[in-house]
């Protein structure tokens, strides 16, 4: 027998095509492994435009491919993300086109509370890195909104608590957008509700709310998970209307609480944050009205007293007219004799002037004046002609030299020079005024610093005896009366310094001395 035999045809072994063998393997695997549940970590995740989801499930030693069809992926409450530990339920099958086996996933859930918390922390860190949690982007709530929009379930106790609390504190118009508050429909419906309220037209037939409240009662982490979805957090962050989140009890925290403008521990507390107490506002308004009335009354009394004080300082009207009335009587008594004397003086002057007038004298004067007039009239016409000709000649020469354009240019230059001088004078005046004001302020501060009043405030006193400042013990003994001035007033001491007895403190008088 040769070491290398010629190949012989396989005996009874059948021949399969590739497709037949792939189909046989598929039937064996699907028959052996029906529905299975696999626990593992999500690896690569791919979401093509078809809507299907392709992913890898892995542990520390092996990897299995998985696929979720579009209908299954759209119904999931929690979408798979890379690094999440999940439990996937489905059936094992093969994909002949790539000679591999895979799991067709029909349901996938996080593997316990730890996976949910890890996913939540991952989303929280991502949103925080984008700045959605910053306090600078949070808006203040309106003090008294006209319309309040509530996103919650219409059949739960939450909406009844909110409406009851609003009715007790300050009744307002409420628009309710019904949504599912748990389950796979929760996140998209809440996000659509927030966007829908923001899309309303202010003042329209259905006006846009001034404030939004997203509310839900307490529950487990799985029940509240819809409010931890990224789509809800981004919708709340993009809301132009101030938003209050009131999801769960006081100890429950969801992602919408971090991006909302204000978090309320309970839905009832959200209603209390939304509106003030009407009775407290009425009481405050009443108090302010009473204070205003009291202030007005006090002002009127003070002004009336001031007017009365000023009125007492004015003299009586009778006193004001007594002097002018007496002068009028005196001048009235002197008017008659003065008129008679004036008429007599003018009559004497008329007699003296009329005695010197004679008809012959008047005729001679008239004839002389007429001759002078005729002589001057004959000279007037040539003189006027010469004057008119000379002035016309001068006017013509000046008109020839007159140029409107040059005059306008000269006027514009003069105006600019005037504006520049006015600006310079104004600036210099302002600068000088500021400099003088600073000097005056400095001198005033120096005056206050050097004033003996400042020394008195530090605990010193000024002693005066018989009106003069006393600086020695001998001077104090000689003075009959000592006046001691402190920072808060003056004290008068009678007698000599050795045996003086205190007297009543005199009221503070104007400055009569100085320590300097």
Automatic annotation (TrEMBL):
Pfam families: Exonuc_VII_L, tRNA_anti_2. One of its GO terms (biological process) is DNA catabolic process. Transmembrane segments: none annotated. Residues 132-401 form the Exonuclease VII large subunit C-terminal domain. GO terms for cellular component: cytoplasm; exodeoxyribonuclease VII complex. Residues 497-516 are annotated as: Disordered. It is found in: Cytoplasm. Bidirectionally degrades single-stranded DNA into large acid-insoluble oligonucleotides, which are then degraded further into small acid-soluble oligonucleotides. Heterooligomer composed of large and small subunits. This is Exodeoxyribonuclease 7 large subunit. It comes from Pseudosulfitobacter pseudonitzschiae. The lineage of its organism: Bacteria, Pseudomonadati, Pseudomonadota, Alphaproteobacteria, Rhodobacterales.
